[in-house]
Each structure stands twice: as structure tokens, then as C-alpha cells.
Amino acid sequence: MSEAERRTLSEIESRLADEEPGLASALVAGKPRYPVLSYALVGTFACLGVLLLFLGAFGPALASLGFGAVLMLMRGYTWR
Fold this sequence. Notes:
The protein is mainly alpha-helical. It has helices at residues 3-19, 21-29, 35-55, 58-74. It is elongated, with a radius of gyration of 19 Å. The model has no long low-confidence stretch (mean pLDDT 80).
């Protein structure tokens, strides 16, 4: 990154911190503001996937379970 780009980025960061301090701190922390919403989405897609498995719709069930897994990974969970 060039010096001019660093200066521009620093200026943008300081302006964001002045105008939206809550957003700036959330971006620095790297955590979503409403974690309950993401937990609810993961639970909903997991339940939907299990229900679809019992109903015999294997393709949509796997898609729903896969989407729930992607949401978990986006929240920062690992499989270890």
C-alpha cells in the first residue's frame, strides 16, 4: 500500500470514528451488533433442514443445513 493510500485510509477511519463511533468500534471489534439474530437464523435453518430430511426432501434439506453451517462459519466458529 502506498503512502498516499495509507493517508487516505487513515483519514477515512478517523472520519468514521468521529461520525459513527458505535459502527467504528463494532468494525474494530469484528463482532456483530446483534448476535442473537445470527443464532436464531442458524437454529431456524438447522430445524428446517431436519424437518425436510424427515419429509424426504434431501436436496433442500442439505441446502438448508449447509446454509446454517455457512452462517456458523461466518460468525467465527470453527469445526475444531
